Known about the structure:
Chain A has 588 residues and is an alpha+beta fold.
Amino acid sequence: VTARAWLIRSLLVVGVLIARPAPAQEDPGATGPYAVSVTEYSEDDPFSSGQITNIEVLAQVHYPTNLGNGPYPLVVLVHGHFTTCYGEDANGQFAVSSDWPCLNDFQPIPSYQGYEYLASLLASHGMIVTSISANGINAKENAVSTTMGSAERAELIQHHLDMWYTFSTTGGSFGTQFVGKVDLSRVGMMGHSRGGEGIIWHYELNASQGSPYGSKALLPLAPVNAFRHHVNDVPVGVLLAYCDGDVHDLAGVAYFDDARYDSETDATPKYTFLGLGANHNYFNTFWTPELFEAGFDDWIFRDILQDDPWCGTASGIGRLTSAQQRGFGAAYMAAFFRRHLLGAKQFDGILRGQSPPPPSAQTSLVYSGYHPAAFDRKDLNRLWISSDLTENWLEGDVNQLGLATYQQCGDWTGLQCASTGTDAHFPSLSALELGWESLGASYSNELPKYKRDVSNFSTLQFRAALDYSDDDRNPADQPQDLRVQLVDGAGHTFAVKVSTYSGLLYYPPAVTNINQILQRLRPASVMNTVRIPLTAFAGVDKTNLTAVNLLFDQKAKGTVLVSDIAFADEGTTAAEKWLVSSGVVVAD
Amino acid sequence: MNHFIAKRLSSARRAGGRTGLAMRLACPAFMACWTLLALGCATEPEAGETTARHSDPDLHARALRTPVSKAIAQRRIEMSTSIERKVNTVEVRVEASEPFLIGAMPPVLVIGDKAFGRSRFAEGRVDVLIFLIDAAEYATLPAGAEARVGYLSSSARLEPGKPASGSAPATGPRILPSQVEPNRHRLGVLQAGGMKVLP
């Protein structure tokens, strides 16, 4: 590496940012206390991976100007598939191409610079952020890659991390600037679109090499998921865009679903963050039409006339502006990386969906899915296998009363839970479909003797969604509601409404079959998480809990989907401390 | 950042500023879809015309709500095909009257009950897609098989292709016709000498 020539392109101080007084509830999208500088690095020799040669080695870096407080964690940003070059055609009109290197007078499209809004935010909170260019992969991956570029992106990321090892030890082209200032045991990654699958593959690649770099936080952003790999033992937060016209089935949700129960010792949480008004492209400023000519609204893939009542820009009412979309993305991505690279626990409520989106997100329509670490959960009913209909994971009886529909769907059943539109979870998630046609139906999970003490847990949580495909029971645009009831051994009961704690039983917006193209695509069913503090169930003895009931007494009829019912507590238990201290698991 | 990019960026970001090139924002002219409908653009500002920017919420809101002209949206895209035989590969060249839209999901050529996902654009052009088909596999395709192009569905689950081995080139992931979006563009039928394009 030292034999290679490095080029430092530019150094630009973008401003000194003064820390604000601490607000009542900190906004993760607020600029942090560090002044930020930006630079770039490149390598003269192109990189090769698999059958793809001539991959540029180029990245933009945002970092705290004063590196004296380092070492700082490193965050790697990886863009996805897009056109690679732009210029003027023979008629003087703007034009693009997918060559690499660019031909004639065409210039590279700097997709890697499209996340500056995020990179500067993260750097202002004490992270070094490198956003790498992958145009060379984009130009060739459809022709020669065996993995749609995922393996090549993984190797390119590792190559950049190798460079950062040099920067942080012997210095390389940066001289002493980053020596001792980069903590490569705390590395976070954000991959957009095909970059999202790339960072999952990179995690596997790095692990196969003995984990020379400490991948501590993965955020696939509107990711593709063609090969259905998933990873455990690392926090994963999948950011999903409801109006994604490109990865329209929200395939990235499977990174969450597939990882849930794959490891009984996974000490790290998994999240999804669903933005109802976001599309695929506007997270990158160079893919955004009002900021760069080559940008476009990907929803048009699905809806030529843009007349979907929610996502369509002609007559829809749900879309965020591109600035609002970046606000949403920056807020949740910053919360995620600050939580898992800097230990900022103040954002747990936002990440887990218990707190509303912060003001910087510029939308209230964000829903979270959350799966706690294995040692932070006591699974009551995973609703994962067929026997879960009659016996739960605490070996208690499962009963229903008065339900018109009581069946599992998704995954191994071969049945889509939402039979029209997009079932984002199919086939990665099995769920329980609960339908009722009169008030008073119920679904009950009993806790057997000797397993009734849940006082060490703080929260009851489950994932749920309204099943819009049952339009007989769920009127269009009407949210659902139900109550959760706890029962103790003395017969004390207390019930709370789900809507008090989450709006996750919203009616998914947009309609089906408005034209041939939208058919099967919207609405989209996405399971989110409701978390209810056990303290809400006043008067119920949590040391002697006998049943958890869902009471369908808020709406006369309806159908909902439920999965992953669990007690949770994210505090460190004695058992967990022992497992960490003994090296069985790695502390988050 | 090179000067050209910097100029373009600052131009695009400057509230109320002007661009030196025609901006095709509400409906990128380089977009094409694989459906029987073509994408159109209702508003295509001339050179120098002010364009909407996120720094102006009202302007942007208007731009975001700009309806796409149905007449233009329903304009049909013309496509033509030609076939070139190389040593181990047959290249099916698909040329469209509009540039193709480039996103996360790769284009796929479906001929009969086979799908082919290896493709590249012709040099300097995004209105010409060249699909790369193994010559031996191409030889097995039945005459009269219907040909269509479309995008791989984002819900498709694939296995990686095979890496290059000896003289055999790498193969892309195996794709089934059922994994291609239903809104595919019909190209024509395969004949012994090549592709017959339907009128």
